[in-house]
Amino acid sequence: MALRKILTDEDPGLHKKCRPITAFNERLFQLLDDMQETLANADGVGLAAPQVGVLRRAVLVLETNVPEGEEPYVIELINPEIIETEGEQEGAEGCLSVPGEFGVVKRPAKVTVRAQDRNGNFFEVTGEGLTARCFCHETDHLEGIVFTEKCERMLTEEEIQALGGEHGGENDGEETD
To answer: Which residues are catalytic?
Structure first.
Protein backbone atom coordinates (compact mmCIF):
# COMPACT_ATOMS: atom_id res chain seq x y z
CA MET A 1 0.00 0.00 0.00
CA ALA A 2 1.05 3.56 -0.58
CA LEU A 3 -0.18 7.02 0.18
CA ARG A 4 -1.42 8.86 -2.88
CA LYS A 5 -1.47 12.62 -3.38
CA ILE A 6 -4.93 14.11 -3.00
CA LEU A 7 -5.63 16.56 -5.80
CA THR A 8 -7.10 19.96 -4.99
CA ASP A 9 -10.01 21.72 -6.62
CA GLU A 10 -7.78 23.58 -9.08
CA ASP A 11 -6.82 20.30 -10.77
CA PRO A 12 -8.82 19.86 -14.00
CA GLY A 13 -9.03 16.09 -13.40
CA LEU A 14 -11.48 16.66 -10.55
CA HIS A 15 -13.94 18.19 -12.99
CA LYS A 16 -14.00 15.33 -15.50
CA LYS A 17 -16.47 12.46 -15.71
CA CYS A 18 -14.93 9.11 -14.78
CA ARG A 19 -14.98 5.92 -16.86
CA PRO A 20 -16.41 2.65 -15.57
CA ILE A 21 -14.10 -0.01 -14.18
CA THR A 22 -14.13 -3.17 -16.28
CA ALA A 23 -11.01 -5.00 -15.06
CA PHE A 24 -11.22 -6.46 -11.56
CA ASN A 25 -7.57 -7.31 -11.06
CA GLU A 26 -4.45 -6.59 -9.02
CA ARG A 27 -4.24 -3.05 -10.41
CA LEU A 28 -7.71 -2.28 -9.04
CA PHE A 29 -6.88 -3.97 -5.72
CA GLN A 30 -3.76 -1.79 -5.42
CA LEU A 31 -5.77 1.36 -6.17
CA LEU A 32 -8.38 0.48 -3.53
CA ASP A 33 -5.75 -0.40 -0.93
CA ASP A 34 -3.83 2.82 -1.64
CA MET A 35 -7.05 4.84 -1.44
CA GLN A 36 -7.89 3.24 1.92
CA GLU A 37 -4.47 4.13 3.32
CA THR A 38 -4.74 7.66 1.89
CA LEU A 39 -8.23 8.12 3.36
CA ALA A 40 -7.13 6.94 6.81
CA ASN A 41 -4.02 9.13 6.71
CA ALA A 42 -6.14 12.18 5.80
CA ASP A 43 -8.69 11.42 8.54
CA GLY A 44 -11.51 11.63 6.00
CA VAL A 45 -14.79 9.79 5.67
CA GLY A 46 -14.84 9.39 1.89
CA LEU A 47 -12.52 9.36 -1.10
CA ALA A 48 -13.11 9.01 -4.83
CA ALA A 49 -10.57 7.75 -7.36
CA PRO A 50 -10.44 11.07 -9.26
CA GLN A 51 -9.24 12.73 -6.04
CA VAL A 52 -6.05 10.68 -6.35
CA GLY A 53 -5.74 11.29 -10.08
CA VAL A 54 -7.47 8.15 -11.40
CA LEU A 55 -10.47 8.87 -13.64
CA ARG A 56 -12.28 5.63 -12.84
CA ARG A 57 -15.55 4.95 -11.00
CA ALA A 58 -14.33 3.82 -7.58
CA VAL A 59 -15.09 5.34 -4.18
CA LEU A 60 -14.56 4.56 -0.53
CA VAL A 61 -16.99 5.60 2.19
CA LEU A 62 -16.37 5.19 5.91
CA GLU A 63 -19.49 3.76 7.54
CA THR A 64 -19.69 5.59 10.85
CA ASN A 65 -23.23 4.48 11.77
CA VAL A 66 -22.09 1.47 13.77
CA PRO A 67 -23.24 0.14 17.14
CA GLU A 68 -21.45 1.53 20.17
CA GLY A 69 -18.21 -0.30 20.77
CA GLU A 70 -17.76 -1.25 17.10
CA GLU A 71 -15.25 0.37 14.78
CA PRO A 72 -16.31 2.27 11.65
CA TYR A 73 -15.46 0.37 8.48
CA VAL A 74 -14.78 1.24 4.85
CA ILE A 75 -17.30 0.43 2.11
CA GLU A 76 -15.71 -0.03 -1.32
CA LEU A 77 -18.00 0.94 -4.18
CA ILE A 78 -16.99 0.16 -7.76
CA ASN A 79 -19.17 1.65 -10.52
CA PRO A 80 -21.68 2.92 -7.93
CA GLU A 81 -25.13 4.06 -8.93
CA ILE A 82 -27.62 5.69 -6.58
CA ILE A 83 -30.86 3.75 -7.06
CA GLU A 84 -33.04 5.16 -4.29
CA THR A 85 -33.17 8.19 -2.02
CA GLU A 86 -35.45 9.18 0.82
CA GLY A 87 -35.95 12.31 2.91
CA GLU A 88 -33.68 15.31 3.14
CA GLN A 89 -30.87 16.58 5.33
CA GLU A 90 -29.02 19.84 5.27
CA GLY A 91 -25.60 20.20 6.78
CA ALA A 92 -21.97 21.20 6.52
CA GLU A 93 -19.76 19.44 4.03
CA GLY A 94 -16.06 19.59 3.48
CA CYS A 95 -13.77 17.83 1.07
CA LEU A 96 -10.19 16.62 1.17
CA SER A 97 -9.78 18.28 -2.24
CA VAL A 98 -11.01 21.64 -0.91
CA PRO A 99 -9.02 21.84 2.33
CA GLY A 100 -10.21 24.16 5.07
CA GLU A 101 -13.46 25.11 3.33
CA PHE A 102 -16.94 24.00 4.25
CA GLY A 103 -20.37 24.74 2.85
CA VAL A 104 -24.03 23.99 3.52
CA VAL A 105 -25.38 21.28 1.20
CA LYS A 106 -28.80 19.60 0.98
CA ARG A 107 -28.64 15.85 0.47
CA PRO A 108 -31.04 12.92 0.87
CA ALA A 109 -31.31 11.54 4.42
CA LYS A 110 -31.22 7.93 3.21
CA VAL A 111 -29.49 6.62 0.07
CA THR A 112 -29.32 3.16 -1.50
CA VAL A 113 -26.44 2.43 -3.86
CA ARG A 114 -25.96 -0.45 -6.27
CA ALA A 115 -22.29 -1.15 -6.93
CA GLN A 116 -19.70 -3.84 -7.44
CA ASP A 117 -17.15 -5.05 -4.94
CA ARG A 118 -13.45 -5.39 -5.75
CA ASN A 119 -14.14 -8.81 -7.31
CA GLY A 120 -16.91 -7.57 -9.60
CA ASN A 121 -19.84 -8.93 -7.58
CA PHE A 122 -22.90 -6.68 -7.52
CA PHE A 123 -24.44 -5.63 -4.19
CA GLU A 124 -26.67 -2.96 -2.72
CA VAL A 125 -26.03 -0.94 0.40
CA THR A 126 -28.14 1.67 2.18
CA GLY A 127 -26.75 4.49 4.24
CA GLU A 128 -28.33 7.12 6.45
CA GLY A 129 -27.12 10.45 7.79
CA LEU A 130 -23.42 11.01 7.20
CA THR A 131 -23.08 7.80 5.19
CA ALA A 132 -25.92 8.87 2.85
CA ARG A 133 -24.26 12.28 2.48
CA CYS A 134 -20.95 10.59 1.63
CA PHE A 135 -22.54 8.29 -0.96
CA CYS A 136 -23.87 11.37 -2.76
CA HIS A 137 -20.72 13.46 -2.32
CA GLU A 138 -18.42 10.70 -3.61
CA THR A 139 -20.60 9.72 -6.58
CA ASP A 140 -20.71 13.42 -7.49
CA HIS A 141 -16.90 13.29 -7.75
CA LEU A 142 -17.28 10.55 -10.37
CA GLU A 143 -19.34 12.96 -12.44
CA GLY A 144 -16.75 15.73 -12.10
CA ILE A 145 -18.80 17.63 -9.51
CA VAL A 146 -17.20 19.13 -6.40
CA PHE A 147 -19.41 19.97 -3.39
CA THR A 148 -18.75 23.70 -3.80
CA GLU A 149 -20.87 23.55 -6.97
CA LYS A 150 -23.86 22.28 -4.95
CA CYS A 151 -23.60 24.22 -1.72
CA GLU A 152 -26.09 26.90 -0.79
CA ARG A 153 -23.38 28.95 0.86
CA MET A 154 -19.87 28.58 2.17
CA LEU A 155 -19.38 28.72 5.94
CA THR A 156 -17.58 31.58 7.63
CA GLU A 157 -14.43 31.02 9.67
CA GLU A 158 -16.49 31.41 12.86
CA GLU A 159 -18.98 28.75 11.74
CA ILE A 160 -16.13 26.40 10.85
CA GLN A 161 -14.61 26.91 14.31
CA ALA A 162 -17.97 26.08 15.88
CA LEU A 163 -17.98 22.77 13.93
CA GLY A 164 -14.60 21.87 15.38
CA GLY A 165 -12.57 23.24 12.48
CA GLU A 166 -9.76 24.15 14.86
CA HIS A 167 -8.76 20.49 14.63
CA GLY A 168 -8.46 20.83 10.87
CA GLY A 169 -10.31 17.52 10.73
CA GLU A 170 -12.14 16.45 7.62
CA ASN A 171 -14.02 14.04 9.86
CA ASP A 172 -15.60 16.47 12.33
CA GLY A 173 -19.34 17.04 12.45
CA GLU A 174 -21.05 16.28 9.16
CA GLU A 175 -18.20 16.86 6.73
CA THR A 176 -17.69 14.27 4.06
CA ASP A 177 -14.43 13.63 2.31
So the answer is: 138
